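Hi all, posting the design record for the shared folder.

TITLE: backbone redesign
STEP: 1 of 1
STRUCTURE INPUT:
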């Protein structure tokens, strides 16, 4: 004979579940109740850091909770990403993710990062910008063919600065496509490589337009070629690699907000709505207009499809080109 399942037992079971996961119940109804930490896996002044500070300010105002920026640079963004992957999935620790930390790194360091694609839930997209090659303003080169000719005259003497996995791939791929012997010098962020470029410590460097805009505005560096499909609207005078004779040389950097996997859906939805509003207007729109980047507004399902597609694309790209992280 089956035991009757009285309503009182159902109530007790529900209460037990609530006691087992009290943070989940609060997260769905009262989030946020305390400060939120937004981890930036690159140095202050990097493109990711610039975006993060705008988002932190906007979320602090719209969600009525302080958002604190914590820079954790190192290992192509893996140090900061790993810290977030290990955090509690309650919405109070977020990652300012990127194509480097959340796509290219999986192909660069398979099984060695301390985190996997399944370690994160992408909460919202922020923006995407084409990568460009930059040189010191005083250099005489008018196009990439001039630079290539110089490199061939002086094999092993020129250096390319990279500040993340995306720009490191760009350096290595350019060397292979151009058939030149150039030394790639890795930095913890694009802003650091551009600082050395401005100081004539490098021959050229690749960077996203967001990190580069301050250096370009100072007239210390200038773009020699854009790795976009078409010219950047902010710098229409800069031709693309394809226009300068190097076809299929396209690189795009992007940023997005990630949370540790298992974030309660109501919290994820609240963050998605709030970040999408910030990403599509205000200071973010002003930043994009200066850098020539585009907004990445998408719902949670769209965010999941996007990051899965990016991971697959970069894996294929790295495998086909043979580029290694330690080159």
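Okay, here is what came back for every position:
SEQUENCE:
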């Amino acid at each position: 004979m089956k035991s009757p399942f009285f309503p009182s037992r159902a109530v007790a079971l529900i209460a037990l579940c609530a006691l087992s996961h009290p943070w989940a119940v609060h997260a769905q109804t009262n989030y946020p109740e305390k400060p939120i930490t937004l981890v930036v896996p690159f140095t202050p002044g990097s493109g990711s850091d610039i975006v993060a500070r705008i988002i932190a300010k906007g979320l602090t105002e719209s969600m009525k909770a302080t958002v604190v920026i914590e820079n954790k640079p190192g290992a192509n963004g893996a140090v900061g990403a790993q810290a977030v992957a290990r955090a509690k999935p309650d919405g109070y620790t977020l990652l300012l993710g990127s194509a480097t930390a959340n796509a290219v790194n999986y192909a660069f360091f398979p099984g060695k990062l301390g985190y996997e694609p399944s370690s994160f839930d992408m909460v919202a997209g922020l923006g995407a910008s084409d990568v460009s090659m930059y040189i010191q303003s005083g250099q005489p080169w008018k196009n990439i063919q001039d630079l290539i000719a110089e490199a061939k005259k002086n094999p092993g003497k020129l250096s390319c600065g990279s500040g993340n996995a995306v720009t490191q791939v760009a350096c290595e791929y350019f060397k292979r496509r151009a058939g030149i012997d150039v030394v790639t010098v890795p930095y913890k962020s694009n802003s650091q490589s551009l600082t050395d470029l401005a100081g004539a410590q490098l021959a050229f460097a690749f960077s996203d337009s967001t990190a580069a805009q301050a250096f370009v505005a100072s007239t210390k560096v200038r773009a020699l070629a854009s790795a976009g499909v078409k010219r950047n609207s902010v710098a229409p005078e800069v031709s693309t690699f394809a226009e300068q004779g190097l076809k299929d040389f396209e690189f795009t950097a992007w940023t997005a907000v990630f949370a540790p996997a298992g974030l309660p859906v109501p919290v994820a939805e609240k963050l998605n709505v709030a970040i999408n509003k910030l990403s599509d207007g205000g200071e973010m729109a002003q930043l994009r207009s200066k850098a020539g980047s585009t907004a990445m507004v998408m719902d949670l399902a769209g965010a999941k499809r996007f990051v899965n597609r990016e991971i697959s694309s970069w894996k294929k790209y790295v495998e086909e080109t043979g580029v290694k992280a330690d080159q």
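COMMENT: The two ends are 71 Å apart (CA to CA).
Let me know if anyone wants the other runs.
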